[in-house]
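Input chain follows. Return structure tokens only.
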Amino acid sequence: MPPNTNSLFILDTFLTISAPTQSLYKEKGSKFMAFSYPVETEQEVKQCLEILKKSYHDASHHCFAYILGANQEKYRASDDGEPSHSAGTPILGQIRSKNLTDTLVVVVRYFGGTKLGVSGLISAYKTAAANALETAEIIEKTVVLPINIQYNYEETNEIMRLIEQLALKIQTQNFGIWCEMTLLTKKSNLLETQEKFKKWVK
């Protein structure tokens, strides 16, 4: 499914990977070590890259691609010195082929002395990325959005009844002069939730 950010209610769920994976692919003496990571922010991407560059500081290249956001709205591909579009683009293509998001794939290459040519590089990086993702567990996550409400103690039973009725999750709650809660609702139920809680929304 292509990314689309024109509407708030495009996707209620998205696919990502549950845990990091690693694989090794060899081609004409070169080693392609592929790593996949579940990530949610560009800061997490940066941290993963820093760890790999430190661990494999003597590698020829650290090529990568990632997609972020429930609607796949953020993405980037890097060739890290390889010929243009010979590394990052095929890695990105493998993430997209599985319709994944919040996913980073890094392929660390150790040059083996034999040049592979652009077509050979494309094939090698594609295969390495595919191998890493092939071993990953793909999971479905639900897109949730927060709603902040404020109410008095006498309304607690009514509030809790609505929370149960709409299957909402309580993220935070605070009891002071007023009762305050942050509720999480499915993206597709946002309008209904806002309507039900309209007199209490802050």
